[in-house]
Amino acid sequence: WRDMTWQAKADNEGLKRRLWDLEKVLEQAQEDKRDIREEMTWQYQELQKQTAAHSQRLEVKVKSLQEQLANRLQESQTTQETATQALAERDRTIAQLQGKLYAMEKEYEKIPHGSLDLVLAKMAEASQYWEEVGTTITVEHKECLQEFGLNPLEM
């Protein structure tokens, strides 16, 4: 029995040592697991911070770009309104100038007609005057010829 007791104690000691070694390995594995979990938690939190910061920067950039777009749209609308007003003013000016040109053409058409009428009236006066002068001269010459006894119709 002694040998068996001694053998059982030796096996018991060996098993206790092995159990103690396995407990140490288990504790080390749990410690490693805890360290890995802490590291992963830290990395996750850092990644969340970086993502939040990046998201915030993007939101600021989007807001800035939206403001720029709104400003550009406002400028574009203002420019378009100004261009529309300028075109309308140009069209009004062209219409006024065309109206003036038409009126001037009518006035200039009247000038030659008026001048022609005036020239014709003066020519009619001159013609009448010279006809009267011619008649007077003819009458005087007839009288002169008759004084000398000549017949003016024979000449």
UniProtKB/TrEMBL annotation:
Location, primary (coarse class): cytoplasm
Function description: Component of the nexin-dynein regulatory complex (N-DRC), a key regulator of ciliary/flagellar motility which maintains the alignment and integrity of the distal axoneme and regulates microtubule sliding in motile axonemes.
This protein's name: Dynein regulatory complex protein 12
Domain of life: Eukaryota
Subunit structure: Component of the nexin-dynein regulatory complex (N-DRC).
Compartment(s) of residence: Cytoplasm, Cytoskeleton, Flagellum axoneme
InterPro entries with a match to the protein in the record: DRC12-like
Coiled coil stretches, renumbered: 12-75
Keyword Coiled coil: yes
Organism: Stercorarius parasiticus
Gene assigned in the entry: Ccdc153
Family the UniProt entry places it in: Belongs to the DRC12 family.
The entry's keywords: Cell projection, Cilium, Coiled coil, Cytoplasm, Cytoskeleton, Flagellum
